[in-house]
TrEMBL record:
InterPro entries: MLTG-like. The gene is mltG. Residues 23-32 have a biased composition (Polar residues). It comes from the Bacteria. Functions as a peptidoglycan terminase that cleaves nascent peptidoglycan strands endolytically to terminate their elongation. This is Endolytic murein transglycosylase. GO terms for molecular function: lytic endotransglycosylase activity.
Amino acid sequence: MNGEDDKSTGTRESAAATELSRFPQTSRSETPLSDARQTDERATQPTRRETAARTTSVPPVRRRKPRVLLWSFLIALGLVLIVAGGALFYLWNGLRPTAASSTPINVTISSGMRAQKVAEVLEENGLIRSAFLFSGWLKIEGEGSRFQAGEYELTPGMTRDEIVAKLNAGDIVAAETIRFTIPEGFTVQQIAARLSETSGLDKNKFMEASGNPAQWTGSLWTKALPNDNSLRFPLEGYLFPETYEMKRGSTEVDVINRMLAELDHKLDQLPEDWQSTLEERGLTVHQLLTIASLVEREVVADEERPIVSSVIQNRLKKKMPLQIDATIQYLLDKQKERLLEADLKVNSPYNTYLNAGLPPGPIASPSLKSIEAALYPETTDYFYYVTKKDGTNTHLFAVTYKQHQKNIQLSEKNVK
C-alpha cells in the first residue's frame, strides 16, 4: 500500500507541476485572487488623465460665479441709484419755485392757522408745488410758528425763503380801514351814536347786537354777567374806551367783539394779584366795573380817582346810600348841568339816592385808571365829596356831614 500511495502521490505532483507550467511564474505571496483584486481596484480608480481632465474642467465653473455676483451687484446698485435719483428729483422738483408770473395772488392766513394748513393754502393758489414737502421743509428749518395772520400779496415764482420771510414779517396788504375813538365814560347808547356818525354803522343793529349774548365772543368776562333783568344794557361798562382801527366792512358784531377783546387785554395789564385782591374784597368783576364806571363819571383828575373810590368803599361798608349824581344822569335822556329834587326821586334800581349799595351794573365804559382805582382804593375816612366849582375839576372831601355842608358852601362861593 505504501508503494501505491507513493506512486499516486508522485503522479499527482507531476500533474500539478504540469498544470502550473501553463501560467507565468509569480511569487508565492501573489495569488491569482490578489491579481484579480488589483485589477478591480485599477478599474475602479480614475486614471491620471481622467483626474487631470476632471481637474481642468472645474475652473470654468468657478469663473462664472464671480461674474454672476458682479452683475447682481451692478443691477442692485443701478436700482438704488435710480430710486435715489428719483427721490432727489422729486424733492428738487417739489421744492423749487413755481413758474414765475407778474400777476400777484392774494392769500389770507387766518389767526391760529397751522403751518400745514398754510402750506395747503399756498399750494391751492399755485404759489408752491407741494404742500407736503413745503410743510416738511418748514419743520426741518424750524419755521411756521411765527407766521402772522392777515391778507398777503404773493407772486408765483417766489422762493421758499421769500415766502417765509414775508409771512414772518406780517407784510400784509394794507386793507382799507375804519378808525374811530370811543371816549372814556361813554355809554352804550353814546357809543352806538358815535359809530353811526364816524363809521357808517347802523345804530339800531349795534344796540340789538349789544343785547344778544349769543353774538359775544370777544371777552371771557361776559360769560359771568349776572342774569339780571334790571340791567339797562347788559354790555354797559364792558366795551372798552379806546381808539380802534378795523377793516372796512366790519359789522356791528365785529366792532362789539373787538371792544370786548380790548377789555380782556386791559385787565391782563393789571397786577398779577388783581383777582386775588378782588376775592379778598368780596367783589366780582361785574361789581369792579360798576365801581370803576362810577369813578369814571364822577372824577376828572387822575389823582382823585382812588380817593373817590375810597368814599364809595366806605359808604358800602356802612351800608349808606351812595348818592352819586352820575347814576341819576345815566337814567336821563340828556345830561343835565344841574339835577333837580324831582330827578333824585326817579324810580329805578340805578337811583343811588333811593337804593343802598351798588346799582345793578356799570353806568359807562371806565378807563383802566378808573378800574385800577376801583380795585385799589386809597385808605381814607371820607364819606362825602363835592366839586370845588372853581374850574379845576377837583373835589372837596369830608369825613362828617357837618364838614360836607361847609364844603358845599365853599363850593357855591367859588361859583359866585
